[in-house]
Amino acid sequence: xxxxxxxxxxxxPDASGVPVINCRVCQSLINLDxxxxxxxxxxxxxxxxxxxxxxxxxxxxxxxxxxxxxxCKDTSRxxxxxxxxxxxxxxxxxxxxxxxxxxxxxxxxxxxxGTRVVCGHCGNTFLWMELRFNTLAKCPHCKKISSVGSALPxxxxxxxxxxxxxxxxxxxxxxVGTQDFARRFHATYVSWAIAYLLGLIxxxxxxxxxxxxxxxxxxxxx
Length: 222
Fold this sequence. Notes:
This protein has 222 residues and is α+β, with helices and mostly antiparallel strands. 26% of the residues lie in helices and 23% in strands. The chain folds into 2 domains: 20-91, no CATH class; 114-221. The chain has helices at residues 151-177, 179-184, 188-211, and strands at 12-13, 19-22, 29-31, 40-42, 49-51, 59-63, 69-73, 78-80, 89-91, 115-118, 125-128, 135-138, 145-148, 214-217. The protein has a 5-stranded mixed beta sheet with strand order 11-10-14-13-12, with no helix packed on it. Strands 1-2-3 form a 3-stranded antiparallel beta sheet, with no helix packed on it. 17% of the residues are buried. The model is unreliable at 95-112 (pLDDT under 50).
């Protein structure tokens, strides 16, 4: 969504000499006659508020993406939009001092700590909040799981291949070394089956980690 236009606290008189100001949402003229003592005025067309003065001491203006004008403490870092159909949580940037003669400016939402990751499935970019690689992430766009960085799938693929081959070698050794014993005690076949089954499961997991999609961050971590 586009950010709302910058505020202007300059009210100019119209042809009849009545001070007016443009609504910062719909650009309609707002009559300021008898309202110059207020900090904000309400537009009669779109019913949105427009500031005409700098905020009170210790306060600041924030314009939500739904165009709701909020007034909060200048030390606030997160605020919530009160509108029932919005309820957006806005994260605010560092507080900037505004000279008295300058109009109030809306605070821009900034992303929290994290990194932008390009999904390996759909190619869209999303914000990943973990400050480390070697993790699995779920893309909010395509809802699919991918690995952030290639180190994790490579390491796990090698581990599963190693364990799987060890289990298969154990199964082969049991098969060759206990053939005579197994003819008398048929329960020995169970140990063969367990060794081969574990090896097969590990090799299947190795194939999974070898084929998993990898998502890469736009910028590497510092």
